[in-house]
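Customer escalation, tier 2.

The customer says the design service returned an amino acid string that "doesn't look like it belongs to this structure." They asked us to rerun it and document both sides in this ticket. The original structure tokens are below, unchanged.
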């Protein structure tokens, strides 16, 4: 999708939404997708939103914190947020800048996310 001026994907798969994030994340992008993703999760009765960072090469600390806050908002709606595909370079950058990861479920890839959800929901 690129209707907001950003290239991203939002797909419903196996009762969950997958948000494929762009190669470069900005505050403007996050601001525009926050409500869109929450509304889509509610509309589709998704059990989870998987934030797919596998294409993301550039993200600063404030943008990560905004995405973490977005994930917390989804939890309040009863939706399980999962972060997948974070690159080692981004993780090291965030750690070196004292960004906390508490409250985030992060997995290595999309397959691991679906395995996690299957175990969580007893499938």
């Amino acid at each position: 999708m690129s209707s907001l001026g950003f290239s991203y994907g939002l797909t419903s798969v196996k009762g969950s939404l997958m948000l494929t994030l762009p190669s470069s994340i900005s505050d403007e992008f996050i601001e525009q997708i926050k409500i869109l993703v929450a509304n889509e999760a509610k509309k589709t009765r998704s059990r989870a939103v998987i934030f797919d960072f596998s294409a993301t090469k550039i993200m600063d600390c404030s943008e990560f914190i905004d995405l973490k806050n977005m994930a917390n908002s989804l939890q309040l709606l009863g939706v399980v947020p999962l972060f997948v595909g974070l690159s080692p370079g981004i993780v090291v950058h965030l750690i070196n800048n004292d960004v906390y990861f508490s409250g985030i479920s992060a997995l290595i890839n999309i397959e691991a996310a679906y395995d996690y959800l299957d175990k969580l929901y007893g499938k």
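Tier 2 assessment: The sequence is consistent with the input. The chain has one domain: 9-120. The beta strands are 9-13, 16-20, 48-52, 80-84, 105-107. Sent an explanation to the customer and offered a walkthrough call.
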